[in-house]
Amino acid sequence: MQKQFDIQRKFRFIVYVLVLISLSLMGVSSYIYYESVQLVELSKEKIYVLDNGKSLLVALREDISENRDAEARDHVKRFHELFFTLEPDKTYIENNVREALYLADRSAMEQYQAFKENNLYNQVIASDISMTLQTDSIRLDFSAYPYRFTFIGKQKIVRKSNITIRSLKTSGYLRNISRTDNNPHGFLMESWQINENKDLESIRRKSF
């Protein structure tokens, strides 16, 4: 009788141990499942971008939506820097303009053609002129679509004899498009026009 009781007690002990192990396994499995779901959800919020095929950058999708205003400003700034930064080097000018034209519609091409017809680029090359651009402000209006922008900046034109500072005011609209390697912000400038571009001051350079 005592022996039968011991057997029953050992059997119950084994059952308890098995139940405890089963509950522990279920708990671990539930935890792993929960962590896996969280990892999948987190991965959905990430976009992986190759930087010239060398490095892997991770950008959170929520950051992209929150930073749309900053992206728009950078898009406008980048276009103007490319379009108005010139050096006495034909290849340099062509590369800058080509990159800029990816960011805008036909209106930018028309302005580029007007500069060419006015012999601007040949004068820059022949006279060893350097032109740089300083951005003062970029105003955006997101209350209506497409988004209107106004760019205000200053051009610095360095010649052999003098340095000229010119005002630059432009305006246009931004339309959402798909992101590409040549247009990473996913904006296209439309109806772009130069509203003001006049001399502010001229400084004579010292002779060498």
Describe this structure in words.
The protein is an alpha+beta fold and 208 residues long. Helix content is 47%, strand content 32%. It has 6 helices and 7 strands, in the order αββαααααβββββ. A hairpin with a 3-residue loop joins strand 4 and strand 5. Helix 3 packs antiparallel against helix 4. It is rod-shaped and about 110 Å long.
> Percent helix among the residues?
40-55%
* Percent range for β-strand residues: 25-35%
Main pleated-sheet profile: 5 strands, antiparallel
Enumerate the spans where pLDDT stays under 50 for 5 or more consecutive residues. Answer: 54-60
Mean pLDDT: 86
Instruction: Report, as a whole number of angstroms, the end-to-end distance.
Output: 119 Å
Number of strands: 7
Structural class: alpha+beta
What is the 3D shape? rod-shaped
Output the radius of gyration. Answer: 32 Å
Which key terms come to mind for this protein?
five-stranded antiparallel β-sheet, 208 residues, alpha+beta
Task: Describe the secondary structure blueprint for this structure.
Elements: H1 2-44, E1 46-51, E2 55-60, H2 61-66, H3 68-84, H4 90-101, H5 106-117, H6 120-126, E3 130-141, E4 147-158, E5 162-176, E6 187-196, E7 199-204
Antiparallel strand pairs: 1-2, 3-4, 4-5, 5-6, 5-7
Helix pairs in contact: 3-4
